[in-house]
Write a structure and sequence with these properties.
mainly alpha; Growth Hormone, Chain: A; 13 helices; globular; disordered N terminus; disordered C terminus
Length: 316
């Protein structure tokens, strides 16, 4: 049974098929040869590895969109160089999606209760929305960069384009909102609508990535060059829409332009910092890309709910 499972790894003829394709394509290499492929992918080695995986029932398996081995690698290396961090990384391996859901639900209920007693706290919900949007923007960025590497395997040749299109999306969103602001009458509902759009984007992204993972052949090149930049730009566009609108809303309560710009820009940076650290070091390795997108949706759902309590002086 072990050797039969090996053939599942290569539906085009197993090890011999790989060597044949390598020779047929006449790839010129100095180190990697057909003999090296035969040595590294020998059936006995594959069988031994699969046997070890079968015996390690308590250890979660590594998958493309759930790279748990990255987390295990951090645990391993922390034991050598930073022993105190080993306990932290080992503890975080037990994080689950419902922990974030329960924690955010508690925070939302607590803030709503405080808002009934202290009306001034309601004015802080707009900066909080900016923070969760910054969290979403950077998490989307990390997710799409890793997804591109997973699906196509050459992210370093495209990372400049991915970053550039994210910036294009940010600029496009900000320009669109600046153009629409003079005629905008319902500021808070519009801000809630943008939060809702970010939630829908976060929930739809896993389905889109799953669909791309099933596409093969010549279409891969076109999708790599077209679809991913569009996805990145769309995420940046949604983030860019929110910042000018939030500034207008916050200015109705705090008329100082410098304080408003500094506060909101700072909250955006804090959210982006948290998103970058959590997504790359904890969420994606432990929970996977798809559940990370769900967590982004939950964060923005929390501010979506809180914005219903924003005071009328903050915009209609």
């Amino acid at each position: 049974m072990k050797f039969q499972r090996f053939h599942l790894l290569d539906p085009q003829g197993g090890l011999c098929g790989r060597n044949e394709r390598f020779t047929k394509r006449k790839i010129q290499t100095q180190f990697l040869t057909s003999h090296h492929i035969s040595y590294q992918l020998a059936p006995r080695k594959i069988s031994f590895l699969l046997g070890c995986l079968d015996e390690a029932e308590a250890i979660r398996k590594n998958y493309d969109f759930h790279p748990i081995s990255y987390h295990y690698d951090m645990v391993l290396w922390s034991t050598y160089f930073y022993p105190h961090f080993r306990n932290f990384f080992s503890m975080t391996s037990g994080i689950r999606l419902w922990h974030f859901g329960a924690g955010l639900a508690g925070i939302v209920l607590g803030l709503l209760a405080m808002a009934k007693r202290f009306h001034r706290i309601k004015t802080k919900f707009t900066p909080l929305a900016i923070a969760t949007t910054g969290f979403a923007g950077m998490t989307f960025h990390v997710v799409l960069i890793l997804a591109f590497q997973i699906l196509y395997g050459y992210v370093y040749g495209q990372i400049g384009i991915i970053i550039a299109f994210f910036m294009v999306g940010l600029a496009g969103g900000a320009l669109t909102m600046n153009y629409a602001l003079p005629g905008l009458k319902r500021n808070i509902p519009t801000l809630r609508g943008i939060e809702g759009a970010i939630i829908l984007y976060a929930l739809a992204l896993p389905g889109g990535l799953t669909g791309l993972s099933y596409i093969r052949g010549v279409w891969l090149v076109w999708l790599a060059q077209i679809i991913f930049p569009i996805l990145v730009a769309l995420g940046g566009f949604l983030v860019g829409l929110e910042f000018p609108l939030a500034n207008k809303i916050y200015l109705t309560s705090f008329e100082k332009v410098g304080k408003t710009a500094g506060m909101l820009y700072g909250m955006d940076l804090v959210g982006g910092l948290i998103g970058t650290l959590l997504a790359s070091a904890l969420l994606i390795p432990i929970l996977g890309i798809f559940q990370t997108c769900v967590i982004v949706a939950l964060f923005n759902l929390a501010t979506f709910i809180l914005l219903f309590c924003s005071p009328q002086t903050s915009g209609r």
